[in-house]
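Changelog-linked ticket: NAP example.
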Amino acid sequence: MITEKPVCVTGASGFIASHIVSQLLAEGYRVRGTVRKSAEHYPYLLQLPGAPGRLELVQADLLGRDSFLPAFRECDFVIHTASPYVINVRDPENDLVKPALEGTAAVMEAAGKTADLRRIVLTSSVAAVTDEPDSTKVFTELDWNTRSSLRRHPYHYSKTLAERAAWEYIERNKPHFDLVSINPAMVTGPSIVPAINTTNAMIRDIMTGVYPGILDINWGFVDVRDTARAHILAMESDSARGRYLCSAELLHMRDLVELLSLPEYGSFPLPKRDLTGPFGTGLMKALSWTLPRDTGTYIRTHIGRTIRYGCGKIKQDLGISFRPVRESILEAVEDMVSKGHLAPPKKR
Ligand code: NAP
């Protein structure tokens, strides 16, 4: 479904968005990406195959109320990914909630004034689904995070408020366009962007001895290229509806350490001490109070619990299949080494 009109991708400089831009260009779309600085700051976007002549970068800020209206001009589709993804912030209100919420409100208002618009695909998160695993439950699109606040998981709070605001806009205004959200789990894989992403930085932390041992904690992972693909399929599919959880596979920290210990990948200073039992979990809960506030909260709400996401809807409606996340993680590691974010492994 290639249209002559540009597809607008907000936050084009981001880890996920740059893969969306790359795939849209590869499919022959015209793309208008919103960025915060002038275009010459983004050579890695301007040099993507297909970019010359088909990629336009325009400036917009989530806190600039009217900045999205010119960016959406003539667009049939907007993919709204821009939102701060940071875990430990000094000022949760101003650093996370305001840009996420006011930015989404500004995007919805600008969309309402864009006559041609047919659909917004919103990058939400599993953070808007829950901020606390429940080992007895499989989370689905019906679940909403009701517990986060400015003090408890402010990143999760920002994503929940932003996604809710988008759906409430649709409910209240019954506009001429519809909304589909993609709610990814931990997104990993190689980066087009030179900076390191928060999720890949978490993998790097495991590999550089930030954690005192192997903790009883697990995560849903999904490849960044599959996540980008899910956004484009959600845009292209007439029958796409509502929210889509997007997680390929669950990995325990033990699985990650095992994977990264494979001899062919050399030797990283991975955690060795097994803290996955009740003693380790209790110890880590006590130690969590000495960690940066939001990391500490994360440990206390996640350790010793299993998270599970039901991702049947995305596979059935969008026909997506996910690549094995172990391969994505290994590619992310190689990419971090090549970009200088991670010291090369010692040879064994
Ligand atoms: P990222 O690389 O940090 O990208 C965030 C994007 O948002 C960047 O383009 C950033 O622009 C932009 N942004 C931040 N504050 C802004 C502001 N005030 N005005 C305009 N743009 C602003 O993170 P990502 O991983 O790609 O995340 C993209 C989206 O996916 C976010 O909505 C995030 O919540 C969601 N998500 C990510 C993951 C994951 O594991 N990565 C998982 C689930 C959901 P600059 O480049 O100028 O900073």
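Closing comment: Example verified and attached. The pocket of NAP is lined by residues 11, 13-17, 36, 61-63, 81-85, 99, 123, 125, 159, 184, 186-187, 197, 199 (CB under 6 Å). The longest helix spans residues 92-112.
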